[in-house]
Amino acid sequence: MFQKILIANRGEIARRINRTAQAMGIATVAVYSEADAQALHVRECDEAVCIGPAPASESYLNIGKIMAAAKATGAQAIHPGYGFLSENAAFAQACADAGVVFIGPGVQAIRTMGSKSEAKACVQPAGVPLIPGYFGADQSLPTLQAEAARIGYPLMIKAVAGGGGKGIRVVNSSDELPAALESCQREAKNAFGDATVMLEKQIIRPRHVEVQVFADSHGHVVHLYERDCSAQRRHQKVIEEAPAHGLSQALREAIGQTAVQVARAVNYLGAGTVEFLLDARGDYYFMEMNTRLQVEHPVTEMIAGFDLVEWQIRIAAGEPLPVQQADISTFGHAFEARLYAENPEQGFLPAIGEVVLWETPPAAEFNRSQAVRLDGAIASGLSVTPHYDPMIGKLIVWGEDRAQALSLLVKTLSQLRCVGLKNNLQWLKSLCLHPEFQAGGYDTGLIDRMGVESAADSSAQPMPIVLAALAAVARWGQQTDWQTADPLARLDGFSSAVPLMRQDHWQTRHDDRWVVKSHVAALKSGLLVRTQVAGSSVVALSVQVSSRARQGDLNRIQGEVQSDAGFKPFDLIWHRDQLHVHLGDCQHTLLWLNPTHIRADDAHSGHGVAAPMPGKVFAVHVKPGDAVKKGQALVGLEAMKMEHTLTAPKDAVVKAVVHQVGEQVAEGTELVEFEE
């Protein structure tokens, strides 16, 4: 067994590998970029080596620097995690040349399965079912247009070296093909260094089902059954579950054995995932094989009871698989929800910034025997930068059946707290509560069908008066001295038929504006909150405060508020001018419209288009003097490994294009200026 391994990755997967390695008594080496100097994986590993500046090309993708770190620390093996160099054949070869064990498959398997076209050619002789398409080397536009006409629309363009939802475009007609092809090839080149694409017939309303396989160096290959990864946005998995809902036992066995055939066809070693599309008739088609550990491997661990990272390490050390196929069974149901730093209300644009508060439920610790597990990479006080993927963690839950597991997922999402950083926690909960998701057996188009409303809170909304009362309590809680700091509080001892009311202006995240008049009286039994919203009659509510804390510009009040169903627990977290209200299982964000200043977005509203996040301009679609329509493409911005097209918010005339292709811009930088 290895004495020391180097983990060539970052974030939650680096921490995940480190936990298992240290539990096995293996010393670990972390590598990190300058941007990750304070990262959790750096603190937790036994050693850490800085490998360069923030850009991944100069650090996590730099094979020479990683190999130098392995040599300097005496690491006997390297675990690549997922992403970055995990499916890079040149990296695996560099490890072999240096006498360092690559904890993954052989070089040839990576090369073959790393190309979607080669992978299909490899497995076809084994009788593996394939989707009709074009996988040829001729990448000229005329050839691709002719092949697209042969296959028929709609179809998908896919980067042959792709993964993670990047380098994929759906094309519905021949008119769309040239532009989609150019965008797909550019994104593929930037993400994988290879612009080669393939064409594939689009299966209508498919399910994305994948099978976890393992192979050792002694000729044994097993599968650990399937996962359903159909909940996708922009071809990126969002929630995964295992087992797949509604599959017959015969289909489960058939798709599992096909995955084993695929692994044997390429002489596989270690952990791999064979991905299939499943149509409405129950027919399945091979898509690709990922030659690494998957992001969603924890759901398989939860239902099968094995540590898959430990299996990887032992197989790489030459040990046989610890079990045979007949010994593998599953129990219960598991979900994994990917937590992202992104803004669902603005088209899921990636978000950056400091995490002011990150709080998890007490049970959310790494232990596969527990019902709740959180694999994360952030903590209060750390920052998310624009240099890497926006995923900040994964919430994994297990239950005895699907209904129990899904209920636990919704409950735990409600208990997580993330303040200071835009995130998708509430949106994930709304997805979990969607009727199609609740029923199971949904297809990959579910999230697209949810549309823009999926970004809203679909949970039961409280009466505005209750939310307004809590907003009043939050304003009251800002005071240093509860009893004397506020002139209104000093009036509590006076008897008055009409108490003096404070007036505040609030805005919800859906742009609803409220004028809230309130009076908070501190009584021995708690608080009596008299509230009036938008001219409604004054309502008095009883509020019990159980705790109150202040740290810097973060204020927090917890307790219970009177409602129709009795008392409901609340958690109010005020950060700067934002109030995060957690009421029961519902979450809301309110913006206090501070009368002492004008917000920046109000001041600049309507005069142009600014960068919503730091990034690099890769395309400019307009020039000064152009008349543009609302929704027309203006500028292409590459950020956090994805391309984003910024569009005109209204009909306007372009006055100036401030930044050109290739320029790096900061968040908030004006890119296109409109005529007044």
TrEMBL record:
<dbReference type="Pfam" id="PF00289">
    <property type="entry name" value="Biotin_carb_N"/>
</dbReference>
<keyword id="KW-0547">Nucleotide-binding</keyword>
<dbReference type="Pfam" id="PF00364">
    <property type="entry name" value="Biotin_lipoyl"/>
</dbReference>
<dbReference type="InterPro" id="IPR001882">
    <property type="entry name" value="Biotin_BS"/>
</dbReference>
<dbReference type="InterPro" id="IPR011054">
    <property type="entry name" value="Rudment_hybrid_motif"/>
</dbReference>
<dbReference type="InterPro" id="IPR011761">
    <property type="entry name" value="ATP-grasp"/>
</dbReference>
<keyword id="KW-0092">Biotin</keyword>
<feature type="domain" description="ATP-grasp">
    <location>
        <begin position="120"/>
        <end position="317"/>
    </location>
</feature>
<dbReference type="InterPro" id="IPR011764">
    <property type="entry name" value="Biotin_carboxylation_dom"/>
</dbReference>
<keyword id="KW-0436">Ligase</keyword>
<feature type="domain" description="Lipoyl-binding">
    <location>
        <begin position="599"/>
        <end position="675"/>
    </location>
</feature>
<dbReference type="InterPro" id="IPR016185">
    <property type="entry name" value="PreATP-grasp_dom_sf"/>
</dbReference>
<dbReference type="InterPro" id="IPR000089">
    <property type="entry name" value="Biotin_lipoyl"/>
</dbReference>
<dbReference type="InterPro" id="IPR005481">
    <property type="entry name" value="BC-like_N"/>
</dbReference>
<feature type="domain" description="Biotin carboxylation">
    <location>
        <begin position="1"/>
        <end position="452"/>
    </location>
</feature>
<keyword id="KW-0067">ATP-binding</keyword>
<dbReference type="InterPro" id="IPR005479">
    <property type="entry name" value="CPAse_ATP-bd"/>
</dbReference>
<dbReference type="Pfam" id="PF02786">
    <property type="entry name" value="CPSase_L_D2"/>
</dbReference>
<dbReference type="InterPro" id="IPR005482">
    <property type="entry name" value="Biotin_COase_C"/>
</dbReference>
<dbReference type="InterPro" id="IPR011053">
    <property type="entry name" value="Single_hybrid_motif"/>
</dbReference>
<protein>
    <submittedName>
        <fullName>ATP-grasp domain-containing protein</fullName>
    </submittedName>
</protein>
<dbReference type="Pfam" id="PF02785">
    <property type="entry name" value="Biotin_carb_C"/>
</dbReference>
<dbReference type="InterPro" id="IPR050856">
    <property type="entry name" value="Biotin_carboxylase_complex"/>
</dbReference>
